[in-house]
Specification:
Bound molecules: 2-acetamido-2-deoxy-beta-D-glucopyranose
Number of strands: 27
Oligomer: single chain
Largest sheet: 7 strands, mixed
Number of helices: 2
Helix content: 10-25%
Distance between the termini: 178 Å
Radius of gyration: 45 Å
Length: 352
């Protein structure tokens, strides 16, 4: 009876003097990395530590059990006891796996008693991952880069090149694939994430392809840089510059056989969800003759250029008309000459 009481007093004395301290009870580890649980333990001076073990809290049949890591096959060759039988109980886990997340406990046994840590180390496991948000923006919007790296300093790469800022106003050229890495471990990149920068059509241009043969086809092609890709609409300016009519849609306006009715100034409009703009070129389709078609590509919509071209056309038309009418005059003169005898005869007849 007395010995039992003595033992109890001895035991309680031992218990009160014992403690286990975890330097960081909530460590975070990246998948594939190594993690160290810094740990120290204390016990009454009279005791001598015989054995130390690390356990993991495992749910079995609805009950939490502490299972020795050495009994868990998934930890084979991955745990390393860094501590000793004095006061250091640090543990390292290498090549951390997702399943390693959970509660860890330390236990030491002296020759007389075993002591389990009351508290635990909770390990969370994260995969190094990059996030760009929002991942679809309009040019000019603010973009933030976020790297899940267990609070370790991280660095960013865009398509393999270092990115300095983790927050910026997205420009068209910022579109691409982003990945992050822990500083000093740049070879282990996260999976890339894409940033899509959308913008309305820029540099809308139109060009004409024409074989030069009579009755052949003419294709007017519109192009632009836009994200998302633009839809195209074709317009024609007719008599007055102010009146435009829609003549088609699609990137290529194909005129299978050019006729007089196709004469006009053409331009295209590129449109996407973010806006629209018109081509700066005016394509002049000028059918002056059934067999002769002129296609003049005017670069730049400047009114001056249009006026100059219009004047040139007027001069060409005028010159052509002048040449035609002088040919007719010659023909008439020729006829007059040929008819002179007849005229004489007539006059003669009239005189008669
Ligand atoms: C315990 O041992 C580890 C590994 O040798 C060492 O890094 C650590 O500083 C020691 N002390 C404590 C209190 O963990
Ligand atoms: C261990 O316990 C002894 C006696 O109780 C105390 O003096 C010492 O500071 C303790 N050490 C640690 C690391 O808790
Ligand atoms: C652990 O290491 C031993 C000795 O190197 C080896 O035989 C064994 O296959 C390893 N186990 C695992 C799961 O890698
Ligand atoms: C215009 O496009 C059509 C259809 O793609 C093609 O058959 C034709 O040869 C093109 N004409 C010119 C002048 O490029
Ligand atoms: C061009 O087309 C017109 C009308 O379809 C036709 O009268 C003419 O013979 C054609 N010319 C050539 C060179 O094919
Ligand atoms: C472009 O055309 C496609 C297919 O015709 C249509 O679904 C889409 O809504 C159009 N986009 C715009 C911005 O008009
Ligand atoms: C349309 O394009 C012209 C020439 O590239 C540009 O100066 C103008 O700002 C654009 N307008 C819009 C609304 O995007
Ligand atoms: C482009 O042309 C269309 C048709 O004439 C017009 O309604 C629109 O306002 C023009 N857009 C720009 C940006 O000039």
């Amino acid at each position: 009876m007395i010995t039992v009481l003595m033992l109890l007093i001895l035991k309680s004395g031992t218990v009160s003097a014992s403690s286990v301290t975890f330097e960081n009870p909530n460590p975070c580890a990246l998948k594939g990395s190594s993690v160290e649980f810094r740990c120290s333990y204390n016990y009454s001076k009279q005791e001598t530590v015989d054995k130390t073990t690390w356990h993991k809290g495992e749910l079995k049949d609805g009950l939490w059990k502490r299972v020795k890591l050495s009994d868990l096959p998934s930890y084979e060759n991955r745990t390393e006891y860094l501590g000793d039988l004095q006061h250091n109980c640090s543990l390292a886990i290498h090549d951390v796996q997702e399943n390693d997340a959970g509660y860890y406990y330390f236990r030491f046994d002296t020759y007389t008693v075993g002591w389990r840590s009351k508290t635990s180390v909770y390990l969370s496991v994260k995969e190094l991952s990059a996030r760009v948000y929002p991942d679809t923006v309009r040019a000019g919007d603010t973009v933030t880069l976020e790297c899940t790296s267990c609070q370790l300093p991280s660095v960013w790469f865009k398509d393999g090149r270092r990115v300095a800022k983790t927050e910026f106003q997205a420009q068209v050229e910022d579109a691409g694939n982003y990945a992050c890495a822990v500083e000093g471990q740049e070879s282990a990149l996260s999976d890339p994430v894409a940033l899509d920068v959308q913008y309305p059509p820029l540099s809308v241009s139109a060009e004409v392809s024409y074989s030069g043969k009579a009755n052949s086809s003419v294709n007017l092609t519109c192009s632009s840089t836009a994200n998302p890709p633009a839809n195209y609409t074709w317009y024609k300016r007719t008599d007055s510059l102010s009146s435009t009519v829609q003549v088609g849609s699609g990137q290529v306006l194909s005129i299978p056989s050019v006729e007089q009715s196709h004469t006009g100034l053409y331009f295209c409009q590129a449109r996407n969800q973010l806006g629209e703009n018109n081509s700066t070129e005016l394509l002049t389709v000028d059918v002056t003759d059934k067999t002769v078609n002129h296609f003049i590509l005017l670069v730049g919509i400047g009114v001056k250029v249009v006026i100059i071209i219009m004047l040139t056309l007027v001069i060409i038309i005028w010159a052509w008309r002048w040449r035609c009418s002088s040919a007719v005059d010659k023909e008439e003169n020729h006829n007059d000459y040929e008819n002179i005898p007849t005229a004489h005869t007539d006059r003669h007849l009239a005189q008669v």
